[in-house]
Structure prediction request, 203 residues.
Amino acid sequence: MKQQPAETEPTPLNRSFFDRSVHEVAPDLLNKVLVGPNGSGRIVEVEAYGGSDDPGSHAFRGPTPRTELMFGPPGFLYVYFSYGMHWCANVVTEPSGSASAVLLRALEPLSGVSGMYAARGRAKRDVDLCSGPAKLCAALGIDGDLNGLDLTQGSAVVRIVDDGVLPPADATATTRIGLSKGADLAWRYVVLNSPHLSRKIHP
DNA sequence: ACCGGGATGTTCT
DNA sequence: GAACATCCCGGTG
Prediction:
């Protein structure tokens, strides 16, 4: 029987991983594994948000009840309700006082796929399960009840683990999706050639 | 393939 | 009252 190179038992990413610039953390999250209540998937697309220079960030105009998590310590889950229908999940980065987060935008499903189909209703193909920020939350079972969760605890129902697959050497940065402000910033990071992206890269 | 519009409700001005 | 870090469906070419 085949055995993995057993280097490290997959453990959740620790606080110091997230306690860096959002622009370092975001590309480093590519190829990590997001584990949720319904299953898990490999992260293939993220977007960076934050800083006083980013008009597309929820935190741009200062802290509000909704966004206070972005101003807090790193390593926590920030879940917000989008368009009155959908949940989207972020990971808070950078030290307290520095508001930033990484939006998790697309996954390659790994485990719990049948449960993901059940949770996603009309999805017909694997590439439809987690190819968008609200799709992946629905597929994995992430909603507002999990807002503020500490991702670095081994027992957390949502965590991000490193299974030994490195971030892609050719990680590509492109413009973010769905914004009316800050749309010029190339802060979307993707695993090139993944069929699970929310949108294809326009060449 | 591309494009347009509807669903649906919280958040902040 | 407007805006919104989305998704899905139905039209047309």
